[in-house]
Write a structure and sequence with these properties.
74% of the residues lie in helices and 0% in strands. The model is unreliable at 10-18 and 200-215 (pLDDT under 50). 2% of the residues are buried. The chain has 7 helices and no strands. It has a domain at 24-125: Orthogonal Bundle (Helix Hairpins).
């Protein structure tokens, strides 16, 4: 059996069993009192060491015997001080161990209470009923999702029309608009004068139905004839 098991089962000496043993709180209080007492003892020894050291300096070479006695007392006080330091370290370690043990005991006790409470709660629960309840919840969630999907879907108004027929009708409308635009286009008028017998000598200005501006060659020829008439008149 481990030491921890013995501790929790109340293992120990017969005297401890008869008295029941001190509680962790009582033991911790005693240890703290001991630590306080030893700390005060430390302060006292440190003060005595300083006094003896001052006395040894004061006597010095004047009274070597008194100086040596002061140094001897100082050494004894230092030895006691070192022992107290070790004792305090041991007590501190023991106090921390007892505090940890007390904490672990309280933790285990509370965990035991929690386990009993959980057991009591679970006594009123039937696993079969829980499975049925979870199945009902899942089914209702599925129904709610279906309702949400049905509400969020777009209404199918107009879905009974054939999309191909609609496209064909649209093309017909576009063709009608195109034909209407072609009827509104006005072509140039055909010239009323007759065409010459020799097409090779036709001046380009005769094709007025294909020209936008007047023929420049005809105008140039008329200007040349005027110039020739003026020159002939001047020469005569």
């Amino acid at each position: 059996m481990s030491k921890i098991s013995k501790f929790f089962k109340g293992g120990g000496s017969a005297a401890s069993k008869g008295r029941g043993g001190p509680s962790p709180q009582e033991a911790l209080a005693r240890l703290r009192e001991t630590e306080e007492m030893l700390s005060k003892k430390q302060e006292y020894l440190e003060t005595r060491i300083e006094r003896e050291l001052a006395a040894a300096r004061q006597h010095g070479t004047k009274n070597k015997r008194a100086a040596l006695q002061a140094l001897k007392r100082k050494k004894r006080y230092e030895k006691q001080l070192s022992q107290i330091d070790g004792t305090l370290s041991t007590i501190e370690f023991q106090r921390e161990a007892l505090e940890n043990s007390h904490t672990n005991t309280e933790v285990l006790k509370n965990m035991g209470y929690a386990a009993q409470a959980m057991k009591k709660v679970h006594e009123n629960m039937d696993l079969n009923k829980i499975d049925d309840l979870m199945q009902d919840i899942t089914e209702q969630q599925d129904v709610a999702q279906e309702i949400s999907d049905a509400i969020s879907n777009r209404a199918g108004f107009g879905d009974e029309f054939d999309e191909d027929e609609l496209m064909a009708e649209l093309e017909e409308l576009e063709q009608e608009e195109l034909n209407k635009g072609m009827r509104d286009v006005r072509l140039p008028s055909v010239p009323s004068t007759s065409l010459p017998s020799r097409p090779g000598k036709l001046p380009a200005c005769h094709f007025t139905f294909l020209m936008i501006k007047p023929c420049s060659s005809t105008r140039k020829r008329a200007e040349d004839e005027d110039e020739m008439k003026k020159l002939a008149a001047w020469a005569s």
